[in-house]
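[User] Once you have settled down, look closely at the record that follows, and write a paragraph about the fold.
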Amino acid sequence: MSNMVPPDTSDEAPDRSDENRELERPEIIPAHIQPEPESDLKRRIVENVKEIYDPEIPVNVYDLGLVFNIDVHEDNHVDVLMTLTAPNCPAAGILPGQVEDAVRMTEGVESVYLELTFDPPFTPDMMSEEAQLELGFM
């Protein structure tokens, strides 16, 4: 578990600097398996992220299971935790930036912090049923 800082209870805005930042990793499961987004902003973020496709696989990154968590804070700062199909994925140089841009361009989002992780490593079990059907895994 990462070193978590207690929540800021002051009136000041939380420090969103990227230096030494690590997102909390509760039980990591792909976002598409988690409960439906609870806010309109989060639903719109998910819709935008679903527009990003892995260039080698005809499935969006959300249904592919590459997005572990999208956390929208009260100040509309968004933390995104995602992975890739492999550390040496040819799209490693573009997919995280595309996801970050899709989140940032969602109306209402103030700022974005995206963290890329390979723990746990991607497996086809992380894909949605729709993605598994599309790719012939079911």
The longest strand covers residues 67-72.
